[in-house]
Predict the structure.
Amino acid sequence: MEQVVKKIDKKTLILDTTLELLSENGFHGTPISLIAENAGIGAGTIYRYFKNKEELINVLFIEIQRRIIKAMYCNYNEAAPYQERFKVLWINMINYYRKHPKDLIFIEQHRYAPYVSTLTRSESMRIISPVLLFFLEGKKKRFIKHLPLYTIIGLIYGPIVTIVKLNLDHNRVTTDDQIFHAEQACWDAVKYNDTKLEENIK
Amino acid sequence: MEQVVKKIDKKTLILDTTLELLSENGFHGTPISLIAENAGIGAGTIYRYFKNKEELINVLFIEIQRRIIKAMYCNYNEAAPYQERFKVLWINMINYYRKHPKDLIFIEQHRYAPYVSTLTRSESMRIISPVLLFFLEGKKKRFIKHLPLYTIIGLIYGPIVTIVKLNLDHNRVTTDDQIFHAEQACWDAVKYNDTKLEENIK
DNA sequence: TGTCTCGGAATGAACGTTCATTCCGTTTTG
DNA sequence: CAAAACGGAATGAACGTTCATTCCGAGACA
């Protein structure tokens, strides 16, 4: 029993240390030896938990993805109006990144990296599927525009990454006010507009 | 004279080959020796044109950034209405990426990489400054919302990257129709809305 | 209880490979 | 022919991975 607990703890320790170092130095700036050193374990030990460096990255990628989705659905009320639910998901996500900038840097650094396997990519898709379903629901019920899924993702996720990352780069704090307005703009981008209504305004 | 021409040609050759390989294999999947081999030159020759591998990447990053901006301002008419100019810039940019997916992959793979120097980052800012000024103009004249610059960039650039990249990943063609609608949605995200006007509609 | 045995977890030095960079003989240029 | 450009073998540092060995804690035994 205790063995199992220790195993899990050590695996987590390795993952945490890897995240820390990778987000600072990137893939080829963080040798296994450094990860081992910072984790206070032997280099060989890492290979008891992960087949190789690549797998370590892939596992970490999936792990973080999972945490993000979990955070997004905190205080999410299935019964609330669509726009309200949109707001909760969006704000939760950007707040997760605000609180965990290392995760943002890691994810964005590795999203398009060639050593992230196709298996990881499809697993990643599976993890975010609740969000995709949320968008499909919005399209079907005409809460949001009838756009391809990827367009919608781009309109909604793009701003989150850029806002947090640019503020990080320039040592600025991402303010609640910024977030409030950005969320509204994102909603404007995707919310359903009857074209005829638009004409009437003019 | 010819020296200069040849110099430029070989430098370009190296940069082109590097882009080709890097976008496929990533930084640590493309050794200098491979770049040299594919370019049909000696490995040492590369060091006549670039101090080291890092500089090579940084120069390429800047170079591509420049090409993108150049493409954006093709057929741009300073005298046209704001929304029209927005459309031209946006469509030009996404079309550049559609035509040059390797550039997209390269830029996005290295945007947050630690070996892209702060010098490169600020130079990059300088290059895109016309676009930033365009946004500032829009804010001042109330064509677009009064949002922080980075929020605006996120709202506009995020979708471009994601749409092209996701379609690439899934071996789909990015259609003109998709682009047409995505541009409209982006505009909806940033266009100025008088709040009172919105109230009246309801 | 104290001692012995055993198995798997952990270790880190060693290995083989890879790779950026250098160096120098050769070729090209003007 | 002098000087610059070039090629690619040589170099040495760095790295991922392996593996013989040590360590440790849990039973077995008396």
